[in-house]
Amino acid sequence: MGQAFSRLAQVIALLRERCAWTAALTHEALLEYLLEEAYEVIEAVETGHTRAEDAAELSGELGDVLLQVLLHARLQEETGNFSILDVVEGLTAKMVRRNPHVFHPDGTLAESTTGDPAEIERAWDAAKKVEKPRRGSPFEGIPVSLPALALAAKTQNRARRAGVAVPAAETGSGASYGAAVPGWDGEKELGDLLFETVRQATERGIDPEAALRGAIRRFTAAASPMTD
């Protein structure tokens, strides 16, 4: 695999040198492709391309994401900052460091491990705190450019892992983070509820994405003092 990966990195370098279109790429220009390719991976998984007979589709989409990583790394290598090797070595070290239930600090396998997901999460979070001690809030580092639903889910997950309460939706119109929410059971009903919420919002001229982002900001502003 090492030889194949090295050949791929070489092909990318040659394209940067000899292909005018590839040579003109910048980090900023690549961002739309990175986002698009990531969504195509999601679509391939959601449409069942993990099955053996369809897995070639997912393999191709993963290759397109890898291409984006290699191009960004190559741009940095050309400026002398870092190379794809630094990316790989950094990721390897991070995976060892953040998974002490599997690895010793030197990368050798631990004699025993744990099957407790909560314990694994605590070890991961502890390692992150050592890496980034200046972070004073569990919400720091969450990309605010995430789509609102993904941002809400990530924010709430971070809050729970930090022991910060996530208030349930209130039943009155004066709710801080939401209004009355009808009961639902299962993914299909939840999807229908979200779709209907968006329909009502757009009919009233309200941007649902902006509305949810506002709710997230209110929650994090209220919760942050609790984490000091």
From TrEMBL:
It comes from the Bacteria. Pfam families: MazG. Residues 26-103 form the NTP pyrophosphohydrolase MazG-like domain. This is Nucleotide pyrophosphohydrolase.
